[in-house]
Amino acid sequence: MNGADSLCDTLLANDVDVCFANPGTSEMHFVAALDKKPQMRCILGLFEGVVTGAADGYARMADKPAATLLHLGPGLANGLANIHNARRANTPMVNIVGDHAAYHLQYDAPLTSDIESLARPMSDWVHRIQSAADVSPAAAAAIQASRSGPGGIATLILPADAAWTEAPATIQRATDPELAPVQDDALRAAGAALRNGRKTVILLSGKALRGEALDTASRIAVKTGARLMAQQSNGRVERGAGRVMIDRVPFSVDLALKTFEDTEQLILVGAKTPVAFFAYPGKPGVLVPAACDIIPLTGPDNDVAQALQALAEAVGADHTVAPLTSQRTATQLPSGALNAAAIIQAIGVLSPENAIICDESVSSGRDSFKSTFGAAPHDFLQITGGAIGIGIPLATGAAVACPDRKVILMQADGSGMYTLQALWTQAREQLDVVTIIFANRSYAILHNELKMVGAGEPGRNARRMLDLDNPTFDWVHMAKASGVEAARATDAESFIDVLRSALARKGPFLIEAVI
Amino acid sequence: MNGADSLCDTLLANDVDVCFANPGTSEMHFVAALDKKPQMRCILGLFEGVVTGAADGYARMADKPAATLLHLGPGLANGLANIHNARRANTPMVNIVGDHAAYHLQYDAPLTSDIESLARPMSDWVHRIQSAADVSPAAAAAIQASRSGPGGIATLILPADAAWTEAPATIQRATDPELAPVQDDALRAAGAALRNGRKTVILLSGKALRGEALDTASRIAVKTGARLMAQQSNGRVERGAGRVMIDRVPFSVDLALKTFEDTEQLILVGAKTPVAFFAYPGKPGVLVPAACDIIPLTGPDNDVAQALQALAEAVGADHTVAPLTSQRTATQLPSGALNAAAIIQAIGVLSPENAIICDESVSSGRDSFKSTFGAAPHDFLQITGGAIGIGIPLATGAAVACPDRKVILMQADGSGMYTLQALWTQAREQLDVVTIIFANRSYAILHNELKMVGAGEPGRNARRMLDLDNPTFDWVHMAKASGVEAARATDAESFIDVLRSALARKGPFLIEAVI
Predict the structure, then answer these.
(1) Domain check: are A306 and A370 in the same one?
(2) Mutate to test the interface with B, among A18, A453, A475 (most CBs of B within 10 A)
(3) What is the enclosing helix (H) or strand (E) of B63?
(4) Which residues constitute the domain of residue B150?
(5) Which SUPFAM superfamilies match (chains A, B) (predicted)?
(6) Alpha helix locations (H) across A148-293?
(7) What is the pLDDT at residue A421?
């Protein structure tokens, strides 16, 4: 076996059996190795941002890493924006980046670049394989790094000669990750805070937004009178009717300040102190009042579920306390003009049980949480790092992980343009994704931001940079180009009709919702 | 005036008057500044790889830098692959990357990343603006850096607060670049080599492949019996009927070794010693024989035209010596089956005088030089750094720089998928580009490379990673989605018909040539 075989075997031995790929010449030995192993599912993306965004969506739902296969520095660079998002979601991911043979780097051939420098800003762990013998230990270490803490980005650089050289047959195994329990003093501090009568918010993120942990958090809030909130961006939230009702920190600085204006204590559970997404002249960066006490119960690196359970015991929030759950309220369909609110309202009513709702609707979907509290129970995946172009790949990966569940993507048109190549992957893999394009034909968020700058009415240059019209992009044609069936809707009734039929069938479908 | 106004004024004062842009919130003050200056042409790309690739094509033809406007680390990352190509072409480019306000970085808001680490591998010069007062000096330094030597990548990080803070009214000017003349000992060595009777290749790149410099090089070759060659990849070559006939180093290692097998001396003029694009087991990295003397006349940083003129004088290659030029031989149109050779043959016959031919045809176009020696005189722009996804943006930028010339793009389908968003920019700006998609529905180059690995017939996993079928992507639908007229051709006759009519009209047109 050569180094490439050793890498493939190490991935499989450690339960990494999906590889989102866009290979090049320097990865050909690895392609040949993958070709010998039908138990590895290889999924081609026609651009690397598709590959990494899909790996993110996959891992958020599968709770284990996928591998990505990328071609040297530029291939990695193309995938970085969605690696950035994945890192902000604490997604486990193992990136395999092919490079020139080690002895070839001295020649500075055209595709040569400093891969480590590119990888580090978006990776938690980076390693360049030193030899064929280093392949299996390095791959096991990468998998372990990707699984450590809440999950992280491991980037493994594979020189071509390490791939093609004879390697030892020993395959390394990553050890199972261990999450540290909550620290006693943090537990005591949070418990005391919940008993002192001050106005308290418990801010959750990561695994605290799922299943039993979220129930426990809600019981704590109900028992102590604290308010439960989710971070503005989270990798995955389990929500909908019958599940814990939890709102998230608003994106708007003014709304977020209002949300926290009377908050005296903030208990962090896998979350960070909320800060403004962007700085604005004269507005604060931290969104809680200066006098608010910040009490970290546990960061994302610890066992969040255990920490919440311990806190529940400390405050007496046992199973006799019922969590605050959402009711099945989303039953009224919209009518008349089609706009973002109507689309989201319709999704709230029609999305089936156990759907996966992905959200890159940006400005259009800011208020979507309200309309979907009462939707059928679902997982909610959103853009986490602000790097647009995640939506279509994210939905693609989630559908690979969960072939029996319907994936619904709320996709802004401007952001969707970034990685529209993922539609082709959905067609090829026949993934069960309904993509809903919020076609407002502009970077609406930026029009709003420009207003806030006080620039007045936008002139020609500003409009040329913020509007997506002249020509408008035709998403129905684009979907058909990719082998995905599609339709356009321009009022609520036609949107509902199309959405109903898209949800009733299997396989990818795109709706261009003109708003 | 604020820092953003100061930046805009500094660009304009230094003749940088085209800005390829994909802005975000942190760049809104700069957008507002650009909006006040109609003399700045702002061109939106719906993905950053479009923005940077277009800036490359523009600068190769305009011989001056464009600005790019990119949104934080992920926006820069999306543009890096084509910045990599531009750097390998020695293209002048000024990248303006917005970042958070300096005081906001401490909060590690979701879009925060280490922009410098991302920028450095693909930049010749990187600077983070320190204050509003630093904006104009820094921008002038960036422009100067982009123009120094043969041209380079300057990346300027603009914190939002430096943009929105009041700035001094003084606008800095970059000094004109100066190219050093050839060094005496290098000139003597090259002159001596050309007189010693040994088999000599003069290898050219950069400005040596244009106009007077190229004529001079050819006269030297004719006079001394040396062979003239161009580097494998070059930013721009002036060629075609009536111009100097010069072949380039083949991509294939075996063919390149054959080309140089009897070469005893290699004189470098703005070029590098030729090396293999990739390493292969058992094959050499350097493509000239070990015994071949390498004689650098001048690197790309020096005045290449002056160096060639001095060498011509040294060897007596004056204007009585005629350069070896191509004849107008491309007159025979193909017929029958459509394949890459037929497409290129037709382009050779039909491309109009003074066209700009861009090439990202990858494996399909490897032999295209032969068929176009005798085409009408044209500029030839190619992918230089091996980072695929340059073609459609490159053609877009070239058309912006030269609105009165026809741009013809030879585009491989797999590579074209990377940055197909550039078609929309062509439609919006009504650019005169004919895009010819070589639709072989596979990463054909990789099939070939896989064969060379000795992996035998590709199995399911390999085919799933190397084939672009099931479904085939429909480029005609895609072009129409973007507002670009398009047609499909499946035999030589229909291809010729469509190409003729596309060349006869103004504005963007796409031909899907199924091969």
Answers:
(1) no
(2) A453
(3) none
(4) 3-164
(5) Thiamin diphosphate-binding fold (THDP-binding)
(6) 160-164, 184-195, 211-224, 253-259
(7) 98
Strand ranges (DSSP E) for A80-185?
A: 93-99, 125-128, 153-159
Same domain membership, residue B153 and residue B19: yes
Query: A277, A299, A315 — which closes off a domain?
Result: A315
pLDDT over threshold 80, residue B454:
no
Residue given tokens 């005893």 in the structure block:
B264
**Measured between beta carbons, which residues in chain A are less than 8 angstroms from residue B249?**
none
Point out the least confidently predicted range of A276-280, B110-114, B175-179: B175-179
User: What local confidence, expressed as pLDDT, does residue A282 receive?
Assistant: 92
How sure is the predictor about B176, in pLDDT bands with cuts at 50, 70 and 90?
confident
**Is residue A233 one of the residues assigned to a domain?**
yes
Chain A CB contacts of B279 under 8 Å are: 100-101, 103-104, 160-161
**Nearest CA among B15, B22, B24, B17 for reference residue B163:** B24
pLDDT of residue A263: 98
Contact A412, A359 (CB under 8 A): no
pLDDT category at B364 given cuts 50, 70, 90 is: confident
Are both A382 and A440 inside the same structural domain?
Answer: yes
Please give the structure tokens belonging to residue B350: 């039909």
Residues B134 and B243 in one domain: no
B455 pLDDT above the threshold of 90:
no
Q: Which long-range contacts (CB under 8 A, 24 or more apart) does A351-354 make?
A: A351/A375, A351/A376, A351/A378, A351/A406, A351/A408, A351/A503, A352/A376, A352/A406, A352/A503, A353/A377, A354/A378, A354/A405, A354/A406
Same domain, yes or no, for B38 and B159?
yes
Arithmetic mean of pLDDT, B234-255? 97
Domain total for chain A? 3
CATH code: domain of residue A470: 3.40.50.970
Residue B8 clears pLDDT 90, i.e. is over it: yes
Residues B267 and B398 grouped into a single domain: no
The stretches of A338-390 forming alpha helices (DSSP H) are: 340-350, 368-372
- What digits encode the pLDDT tens for the residues A7-38? 999 999 999 999 999 999 999 999 999 999 99
Question: Across the interface, do A111 and B387 touch by the CB < 8 Å criterion?
Answer: yes
- State the burial class of residue A116 (Cβ atoms within 10 Å of its Cβ: 0-12, 13-18, 19+): middle
pLDDT above 80: residue B456: no
Residues B189, B61 within the same domain: no
A422 part of a folded domain: yes
How close is the nearest chain B Cα to the Cα of A276, in Å? 7
- Cβ-defined contact of A107 to B286 (cutoff 8 Å): yes
- Partners of A162 on chain B (C-beta within 8 Å) are none
Q: Which amino acid is it at A291?
A: A
| Tokens encoding B104 | 């906001």
* Domain membership flag for residue B461: yes
A418 to chain B, closest Cα gap in Å: 5
Q: Is 80 exceeded by the pLDDT of residue B510?
A: yes
Shared domain for A17 and A151, answered yes or no, is yes
CATH number at residue A265: 3.40.50.1220
**Inter-chain touch B113–A446, beta carbons under 8 Å:** no
Q: What integer pLDDT is reported at residue A368 of this predicted model?
A: 86
- For A456, residues 6+ apart whose C-beta sits below 8 A from its C-beta are none
In a domain, B211, yes or no: yes
Chain A residues with CB inside 8 Å of B164's CB?
A: 281, 453
Give the DSSP letter of residue A412: E
Q: Tell which residue, B97, B166, B156, B96, has the closest CA to residue B131.
A: B166
Q: Which of A136, A164, A192 is the last residue of a domain?
A: A164
Q: What is the pLDDT of residue A14?
A: 98
pLDDT 10s digits, B303-336: 999 999 999 999 999 999 999 999 998 889 999 9
- What SS3 state is found at B470? coil
Nearest residue on chain B to A44, alpha-carbon basis: B465
| Residue corresponding to tokens 């990548």 | B153
